[in-house]
Description:
Blueprint: H1 7-18, H2 22-54, H3 59-108, H4 111-116, H5 119-161, H6 163-169, H7 173-210, H8 212-217, H9 221-274, H10 279-320, E1 342-349, E2 358-365, E3 370-374, H11 381-388, E4 396-401, E5 404-405, H12 411-417, E6 418-421, E7 430-431, H13 432-436, H14 445-454, H15 458-463, E8 471-472, H16 481-495, E9 499-503, H17 511-525, E10 529-533, H18 537-542, E11 545-550, E12 553-558, H19 560-566, H20 569-583
Parallel strand pairs: 3-10, 3-11, 6-9, 9-10
Antiparallel strand pairs: 1-2, 1-4, 4-5, 7-8, 11-12
Helix pairs in contact: 2-3, 2-5, 2-10, 3-5, 3-10, 5-6, 5-7, 5-10, 6-9, 7-9, 7-10, 9-10, 14-16, 16-17
Amino acid sequence: MERKVSDTLLLRRIGRYVLPFRNQLMMSIISLLVTAATNLAGPYVLKIAIDTYITSQDFTGLANIMLAYIAINIVNFLTSHRQLYLMSGIGQRLIYKFREEMFSRLQRLSLKFYSQNVSGSIVSRVTNDVDSLQELLTSGILTVISDIVTIAGIFMIMAWMSLQLTLVSMIIAPMLLTLIYIFQKKARSAYLATKQKMAGVTAKLAESIMGMRVIQSFTRESDQQQAFGQVNIENLQANLVAARLFAVFPAGVEVISAVGTCAVLWYGGLQTALGAITIGTIVAFMSYLTMFFRPLLTLSIFYTNFQSAMAGAERMFELIDAPIDIADKDDAAELERARGEISLENTSFGYDPRYLVLNDINLKIAPNETVAIVGPTGAGKSTLINLVCRFYDPTSGSIKVDGYDLRDVKLESLHKQIGLVLQEPFLFAGSVRENIAYSCLEASEDEIVKAAKAVGAHDFIERLPASYDTIIREGATNLSIGQRQLISFARALLADPRILIMDEATSSVDPYTELLIRHALENLLKNRTALIIAHRLSTVRNADRIIVLDQGRIVEEGTHDQLIARKGLYARLYQMQFREAEATPTQKVS
Ligand code: ADP
């Protein structure tokens, strides 16, 4: 657990979040002090009852003091639950605020962040790390104050009642301190191990869920099971070690406390004969001794909890502070309804700036032009469309829409002009209608149906069990791949963007759906600028222009016929990929 930020800085920052709750916090601290005082008063009242009233057989006095005893306990009940409730309230509200800030930051972080952080670790920050902080905030810190007050109070009262007996009862101190020392050390490593192993379980789980299709298709379920079993059992073992420790310690304390009780009874008993110590004092001492141990136990593990919470807080703030590398400039312009001209001027880009993935690209796309990008895998096709959507900024050179540099316009106004259709359309859990209207929440029923009709999705949607109200499950597993594509087309059409950017799907669909998709695409491309990573022969044929990318450079451009005549890379790609499709027009190419 390497830490970069000091505890003081973290606490100060958490403190700023607590500030709005200062009144509740004050109330909570006052309640806590009253609770501690009433706790401390209990045994002393017993001593008075025994020494003053029982020995003198003053039963009226005894009844009164018992009433006082009950009153003290009622106050204790009221303040202790008030204190717990107030503190939990503050803690929970802080946690709510933290999670909200983390989520809102996640919405704004660029794809760079997501390609550098695995989702399991992001999820773990928002859940586990915040949880460990929650423990500290809701009970930890105030418990420590109360523990310290209690221990100090017990000492003072005991010393005030009988210094001798206090010294005698402290013969257990060396044993106790040794036990705490050993426990503290072991508990720390056991506790950290449980946290670490739990993070392992979360990460493995997230990976498996996301990769389930691949796992199942390669029948690697049993390996996954085994790998999960491994982290799961490590987590179990870590928790068992911790559980044993947490079970042994209190039991050990009991034994030591018995020794202490015996010492007090023995020495106190002898002293009563001399009249130096009263029976009430012995009873009160024994009570105080038992009250002494619980705070010691919590104090001894506090530091470990505190460290773990601070580590969690650090990771949490790291996410809240994660730099937003793609952000609007202060004077960013609003991109009005675009004409749809895109130009890349000497654009170079590398995910790591030392290794360029796109190299000096110059490309001008006229409004309403359809440009297909082809090229071997890894040529930089997806990277190019990522740049045009401004998911990343170019390392050098510029990208412009209607003459506006993308870095000078408001990101939201840019994204309103761009419709993005991914290779694997992502549908959200919700109805078909909601998924189509995702791009345009105010769309009327008519507009939704019209869009679905235009892309040829209406017919199959009508046949779904609840038509447009059919609920799409997470991952859209209840729809075929072709159906998912058509819905994503309808979504894009409804948004009616000036610029359509598309990564054509490579998955094969049946000939009928293929035909539907081809028609849908024609409708979708009408009257807008389009940049498509093409995998279909029909797409490249119908494109106004084809750009051939190879190793991050544009190596050829022209129409299908021109490029075939050139007998260059495109002609070779065509030979390898597209020819076969020409023989059977419905087949997909890639
Ligand atoms: P294509 O779409 O033509 O197959 P890509 O644009 O996906 O090619 O990838 C181009 C190059 O950039 C590849 O070498 C790939 O390894 C690299 N690359 C793609 N995405 C990332 C990323 N998020 N981080 C680092 N490198 C990446």
